[in-house]
Design a protein that fits this description.
Elements: E1 6-8, E2 16-20, E3 23-27, H1 29-37, H2 42-47, E4 57-62, H3 69-72, E5 76-80, E6 84-86, H4 88-97, E7 101-103, E8 106-109, E9 112-115, E10 117-125, E11 128-142, E12 148-159, H5 163-174
Parallel strand pairs: 1-6, 4-11
Antiparallel strand pairs: 2-3, 4-5, 6-12, 7-10, 8-9, 10-11, 11-12
Length: about 190
C-alpha cells in the first residue's frame, strides 16, 4: 500500500532566493523542515504496521537526557503515513488567527486508550468555511528494548483528516462536552 505523508511548516520570514543562470532556487528553513515533517522511518513503519487509530502522525523519542530542542530532532523516530504534520510555529499561527475550542476525549492510540487534545475551529477555505481539527500529540519514549515508554515533553501537531474524528467532534459539540479555548486574534 502506497502512502504519502505531508509536512506543513510555517516560517515568519521570507525565503532566500539564489540564482543559477536563468533559474531561481528558493532556500528556506520551512522547506527543509516540511521535508522532515513528511517523513516516516522504517522503524516507525514496522512498529506501527498494524496500528488501528484515526491518527496518522506519531513521534517516538530515543532517550537522551539533557538534549536541546534542536538536538532532539535528530533523535526523533517519525511516523507519518497519509497524515499531515504541522510545525509548532504553524500551530501557533493558527491559534492566533482563528477562534478555537478544545476537546480532551479518550481515544484509541496504537498503544491503547489515552486522553487526546484536539483543537477545532472553522477556517476559510476558498469561498466556504470548513471545520478543521488539529491534534496536539506527545512523543512517546522509545526504550532500548524496542518497547514504548512513557510520554515525553516533546509535542507535535497533526492536521486530522479521518472522517470519524470529524463525526466525533460534531457529536461532542452537539452534546456541549467541550472546554472552550479562545485564541486572540492578530
Amino acid at each position: 500500500m502506497q502512502s504519502l505523508g505531508l509536512g506543513v511548516a510555517f516560517q515568519g520570514d521570507a525565503p532566500t532566493y539564489w540564482t543559477d543562470g536563468d533559474s531561481r532556487i528558493m532556500i528556506s528553513k520551512a522547506l527543509n523542515l516540511s521535508d522532515r515533517l513528511s517523513g516516516c522511518t522504517k522503524l516507525a513503519r514496522r512498529m506501527l504496521a498494524d496500528q488501528k487509530s484515526n491518527f496518522s502522525v506519531f513521534h517516538f523519542l530515543q532517550a537522551m537526557k539533557g538534549a536541546s530542542a534542536e538536538e532532539l530532532d535528530e533523535f526523533l523516530v517519525r511516523y507519518n503515513r497519509n497524515g499531515i504534520e504541522l510545525n509548532q510555529e504553524g500551530f501557533q499561527n493558527f491559534l492566533k488567527k482563528f477562534h478555537w475550542s478544545r476537546l480532551r476525549p479518550k481515544l484509541d492510540l496504537p498503544w491503547g486508550k489515552e486522553t487526546v487534545t484536539l483543537f477545532y475551529g472553522e477556517v476559510p477555505m476558498g469561498e466556504a468555511v470548513e471545520l478543521l481539527v488539529l491534534r496536539k500529540g506527545t512523543a512517546r519514549e522509545l526504550l532500548q528494548d524496542g518497547k514504548l515508554g512513557s510520554p515525553s515533553e516533546h509535542s507535535y501537531y497533526e492536521v486530522c483528516t479521518a472522517p470519524a474524528l470529524f463525526d466525533l467532534v460534531a457529536a461532542l459539540i452537539r452534546t456541549n462536552q467541550s472546554s472552550v479555548f479562545v485564541s486572540s486574534r492578530t
